[in-house]
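Risk register update: the risk of archive-format incompatibility is retired. Evidence:
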Amino acid sequence: MQISGSAKVSSLESVTTTVISQTLRRLLFVVAFALASLRAWCADVADADLTPGDREVRRHFPAYAARVTTIRLWPGEAPDEPRPIGAESVGKGTRSSHINNVTLPSITIVQPKNATDATPAVFVCPGGGYGSLGIDVGGVDVIRWLNELGITGVYLKYRVPKRHQGFPMHHHALQDIQRAMSMVRSRAAEFGIDPRRIGVIGFSAGGNLGAMLATHHAKEDRLYPATDAADATSCRPDFVMLVAPAYLTMPIVSGDLDPALQLDKVARNITPPFFITSAT
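Archived output:
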């Protein structure tokens, strides 16, 4: 039995179509799996997975007043963790509640409810001596004020307490804010944020952290290997506001600025503009 040329071509086309179809299905499966994995840690943290600190911050922003999103900074364990840290908890002080023992750093993005255009955004870095993180004072109160001005506030829950073990006191917190700034800027359209107007306001130790980010935003200053594509986005803040910043001198009780600030890198149009205030 002879098979005509047209039948052979038809058979070949059928086989080719089947192979291409199977390959595309496999490729789509891989892409879908990758996207699902990415969403698992990039998406808003489910209520059941919120830490005590996340819940306490979010409690101050009811759904009718703002759009609130909490995101983990790292897909697995945060980098350079040298020793075990106790469970995260919220303590109550005389002036402010505070978060202790942060091993799952996060950002809580609080957007003005009625914003229609892309807004500026400000990372709020609370103080606490790199031992804990303030919530009510120098934290959610500042975000409320920002929202009233039509500005998105981002509460940065960075790692505390200081890990020591040979690391500078700001090391792990600086990793967290570098990562957070890149994540927010890379997803600015999703959050209705202007990527060219993202700044930092820091209080006390948070002010130290803001100062460190201002001089540690170049590619060579990134304190961890790239985690994903977001880390290719600049972590340079567009402006920095320091309120009673701490630990800018070394020794602390001296007039000598800490060499870790890398003041030799301060340059016009590279270092972001600063506003610094304090009181005695």
